[in-house]
């Protein structure tokens, strides 16, 4: 019997995770950039960019899937988070949609374990507390209704972010 929690918080470099899919916080071009996007493209190799060129970009709040190439992960799900503009431009709905769209693609591709970075909280300046609450609530609601993915990893790059996620997950469990 496997009694590990379906939602886990790890501190790691997402490019190192041997999971079914990692999620990339991309931009609408899908052709690479800085932050986690740059790290994923560097680690996956040029073939990733070739596949991305065929995808014709991605809208904010939507997601597209590619192979993982040189990554230990089998797939990469590319989603585009909203740029924080103060909260009055539909940012919360768009960020929640990134998580839902990514999870739907993961399920459709039989992914059992999926790792997410903290979408929009870097270059796109989404406040971390608020973005974390949306991430945890949206993922929790989705997996409560679906069999796949079985396990979600929130892959944090630093201790401070991980602590915010741990508190949000604990609050969820307390109900
Ligand atoms: N593993 C896990 N998390 C990481 C890694 C990594 N290797 N590298 C950074 N992070 P950001 P955004 C964390 O800026 O805000 C790009 O240029 C980072 O600490 O990567 O959605 C794209 O092309 C932060 O918590 O993504 C877009 O133009 C989180 O990942 C734009 O940035 C997200 O930070 C997207 O901005």
From TrEMBL:
Ranges where the Macro domain occurs: 1-173
The keyword Ribonucleoprotein is assigned to this record: no
EC number, as in UniProt: 3.1.1.106
Keyword flag Hydrolase: yes
GO MF annotation terms: O-acetyl-ADP-ribose deacetylase activity
Annotated SUPFAM superfamilies: Macro domain-like
Keywords: Hydrolase
A Pfam family this chain is assigned to: Macro
Signal peptide, first to last residue: none
InterPro entries recorded: Macro_dom, Macro_dom-like
Gene3D superfamilies: Leucine Aminopeptidase, subunit E, domain 1
Name recorded for this polypeptide: O-acetyl-ADP-ribose deacetylase
Organism: Mesorhizobium cantuariense
